[in-house]
Every structure is written in structure tokens, then in C-alpha cells.
Amino acid sequence: MFIVAIPLMIVFIPIGHFNRKKFEKKYSKFLTENHGKNFFCYNNRKNSRKYIEDNIIPNLTDEIEIVYLNGKKVESDYNAEFMSEALNKLKNYSRFPHLMKIRNGKLIDKSINNPFYNILNLNKPRNEFLKQINLFFDLN
To answer: What is the enclosing helix (H) or strand (E) of 24?
Structure first.
């Protein structure tokens, strides 16, 4: 069985590698073309979604784009495949909500899970949380 699979592997591994390189080139172009974009990412977690949609998103500036992760489906105004790649490459991930910004062709991210749950569960002031978001994005 393994001997039969070897010729198939010889054909399909280079094709997969080529397709991945092609996608990475397009993703890199996406990052370059979207320099300066800011993203607030959240998911469908029941205990936080309604609060985010009612109390956080309406208070974000227009310079911040929303990315909603509905299960495994990415919902945003941007190419879902590229946004999914960005979410999969998060370096500082520690649950949602999460912030991402694109600067100089690179994705920079920050988890705001802990400060968010301090607001949600401990009734901390929302203003400090919004200031942290604006500070990360260099917004006044």
C-alpha cells in the first residue's frame, strides 16, 4: 500500500507546496494593501457576544473594522480566506476578544480577553478598556 502511495506523494506534495506559496504571496499582498487597518475580533461565545455588540462595538471609532468569528466561519468586510489566515497566525492569542492591526506589511495582534472579562464579570469601567483599544491602534 505504501509503495502505491509514493508516486502519488511525489506528484501531490509539490503541488501543495506550490499552492501554499501562491497563497502566501497573495496574503502578503493583502497585508501590504491594507496597511493601517485596525480590527476588533470577537466570537460567538454566549456570555460575551451580546455585551460586545451592545456596549463595545457602538463605542469603537469608525477606524476599527469588526471581525466576527461565528463558530469557524469568519464574518467581515474583508476576504474571509485572508482574515482566517490572519486569525490562525495570531502570535499573542489567549482567547477572544482580540485586536489586530496591519502595519508595514505585518500583522500585529493583542489579546484583550482579560481586560474585557474584568469589565464583564467585575463591573470595571468600560472607558479604560476603550482607551486600551485606542492606544493599541494609536488612535486618539
So the answer is: helix 2-33
Angle between helices 2-33 and 80-88 (to 10 degrees): 100
Size of the chain, expressed as the number of residues it contains: 140
Question: Which pTM was predicted?
Answer: 0.85
Residue 77 CA neighbour count, 13 Å, CB half? 8
111 close to 92: Cβ distance less than 8 angstroms: yes
The answer to whether 66 and 40 are in contact (CB under 8 A) is: yes
Reading the block at residue 54, the C-alpha cell is 451592545
Phi then psi for 9, rounded to 5 degrees? -65, -40
**pLDDT-based confidence at 9, cuts 50/70/90?**
confident
